[in-house]
Amino acid sequence: MSWPSSTDPFYLANTTDQSARRSYYGVNSIPAAFGNGTTVGGSASSWRSSGLSNIGTYTPITIEFNGGMIDGELQMSVTVSSETNQTSADLRLYVMTSIDSVYYNSPSAYDNFENVFIEFLTNSSGQNLTLDGATEYTQEFNWTMPSPWPNNNPSILWDISDLNVVAFVQNYSTKEVLQAEWARTNDMNVDMDDDGVINDEDNCMEEYNPEQIDVDADGMGDACDLCDNVNVYVKGNLNGDVANNEPVINLYDVFFLVDRVLDNDYSNEDYIGCSIEAADFNGDSLYNTLDILLMIFDILGNNDDGRTTNTSAVNLLINDLPGSSSINFVSDDYISGFQFDLPIENEYYELIEERKLPNGWLFQTKILSDKIRVIAVDLTGESPIKKASLLLSGNLLSDPENIIISNNIGQTMDAIVKYSDPLLEKLELSNEVNFTSIYPNPFNPVVTIPFSIPYEMNTRVLVYNLTGQLVDVLLEDHALRPGHHSISWDGSGFSSGVYIIQIETPLRRFSQKAFLLK
């Protein structure tokens, strides 16, 4: 990187951008060059060696150009994607223009110049990038050549056909350039599918479609849009059923969406695209119990005559008991569905209906890693409730998450989480951690480890053998809420013998011997 004398016309044409980059790199003398975020010396040979050493180096980032010169204006988009999650890095996108084959009878005895910098299309400090490994980032640009450029000197000669566009992604903190792309604007394809419609106006840029037919008017032409959102994949028709040329919405679609919500997975090719577009019944770009209930109401042809339109809050009461937790919904308003996630300590937890829901209600649970996802909906559309009671065979790690409760017209209701634990006051007064006896002991293959804590604290539960070797981590420094907790250890993969169960808290450590007999 270098900069010319104060009288150089190319420097004077854009002092702001050039000074910003010089300051960013801390360049105080020339010649100077940088590679991989650090200086690579001041000679042409060192520059060449640095460049050659990076050829073929893997980078997860891809840059793509689309567009070109249209009536003297550069109309283009730059799309950046990454194969891996880069959200922890301070990445910036830089897009700039340069020009080749510039003739200038300069004082330095050089007359022909290549890749002469003109200006940034982004700002000089770049455009912030968030690359999560899944989502593409696209930025559109419209740019015209400054006039005059670099000034009015008629002896400086150049041709617009030699204009270049350059884009690169740089880690702003380390200065490392992770990917770069270059193109001669005159060679860029403004009509990728050769259908006579330029890219910016083409509703299917890569599919030949001169008629631009778009039956569902969603901006994506039929040639590349598999989803007919007018005749087939209307809201609610998740599986695309059609009878007598009309879309069919029925309980199969409801069950399809219930499965998707329980799975918490919309990446499977069977679930994305047309089905997911049709699943967003209330248009909030989310897929949950509210969509399920609105779909049910639509199928049943229910109206809201005589039904409540209030959206009062629901009390979610949690009662911690040794080895279990009771979860109760209490509301003055009618509830037609709910879903939430329960953080759990191990895969052996089970959630059951302590008070049976009315006939016609669907109640399902699914274990997803460290939580249980719960969903319950009134499939009849006519049996709302004001109370529900569930029982968890274990204790919660923390508050229920992602709570969604719907009234009987598909409106969301606020949830107020409250805890009811008659032993909690005693625990707080004593300020002690209690590690009660593990059971059964001896055991084969599962042992239950019950304990209680007086207030929220980081807790570890570990298993050692008699030689002091750590053999299993049941809970790794997790912030547990106050109350009773119960963790199970499955010794199926371990040999018979004596093991030490250890609980570590900021207050003290506790240990018990566990006898595994097979």
In words, what does this structure look like?
There is one protein chain. This protein is mainly β. Helices cover 12% and strands 38% of the residues. The protein contains seven helices and 30 strands. The protein has helices at residues 9-12, 15-25, 44-53, 251-263, 274-279, 289-300, 424-430, and strands at 34-35, 38-39, 61-70, 73-82, 91-99, 102-103, 112-113, 116-120, 127-129, 137-143, 163-171, 177-184, 242-243, 246-247, 314-321, 324-343, 351-355, 361-368, 371-378, 385-392, 401-407, 412-413, 415-419, 434-435, 446-453, 457-465, 470-480, 483-490, 497-504, 509-516. The protein starts with 8 loop residues before the first helix and ends with a strand. The model is unreliable at 305-309 and 422-429 (pLDDT under 50).
Write the topology of this structure.
Blueprint lengths: L8 H4 L2 H11 L8 E2 L2 E2 L4 H10 L7 E10 L2 E10 L8 E9 L2 E2 L8 E2 L2 E5 L6 E3 L7 E7 L19 E9 L5 E8 L57 E2 L2 E2 L3 H13 L10 H6 L9 H12 L13 E8 L2 E20 L7 E5 L5 E8 L2 E8 L6 E8 L8 E7 L4 E2 L1 E5 L4 H7 L3 E2 L10 E8 L3 E9 L4 E11 L2 E8 L6 E8 L4 E8 L2
Parallel strand pairs: 15-23
Antiparallel strand pairs: 1-2, 3-4, 4-10, 5-8, 5-9, 5-11, 6-7, 11-12, 13-14, 15-16, 16-19, 16-20, 16-21, 17-20, 18-19, 21-22, 24-25, 25-28, 26-27, 26-29, 29-30
Helix pairs in contact: 4-6
